[in-house]
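Q: Could you fold this chain for me?
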Amino acid sequence: MSLSALQTRLFLAPLQGKTTVFLVADRRTNLLLGKLVLSSLVANGTSCIILDTDAFYASNSELLAEGISRPDLGNLRLYVPKVGTTSEEAALELFKGYGGRAVIIDNLNSFYHTLSSENRSSAGRKLTFLVALLSFLGHANGTTVFVTTYEREKPTIPRHTRPFSGLGDVSISTRCAGDRLILECESGTTWPDGTLSFSIPSSISRVVSP
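A: Sure. Below is the predicted structure, expressed as structure tokens.
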């Protein structure tokens, strides 16, 4: 996804130093969002670490990396937890590779299920703490954090636990409409009218079918 300097600024500037939770409708939407985020970070010269909880980025790496030069790819670190990795080990690996980079966590649904398999009663608290810590780091040093969660795969969480969409500073609903990727702010402060859209290139649209 080729972005102009203006498009990159429009997308990234309001999210700088914040933790943004993107609610995605399906995997196609998530893939297009991932392409948008990575293209924007590369265009902005920002390095990034990705916690790929269910290997979604890894399994779609060819499409996500299309158009990104090898030197720029070197600034993107992908971490896929191995089978049997505990949530604490995954979080530690994330912070070890953090180093002031932008952070992508894909996705909260899978990460919550991992936490629940370890200890269901504390899963919500651990997830809330992790996102809150990332948010604190973002406020402290300007790090931008992108988190995705699938709207249609919301797990049953305890009543006292905040919904995934409320864990960050900003919540954005993300969907596809025709040849457009639509971003609509649900909470927090973003763009002037709260909405932003990007054209989906036909080359990507043909590959990423609905």
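A (continued): The radius of gyration is 16 Å.
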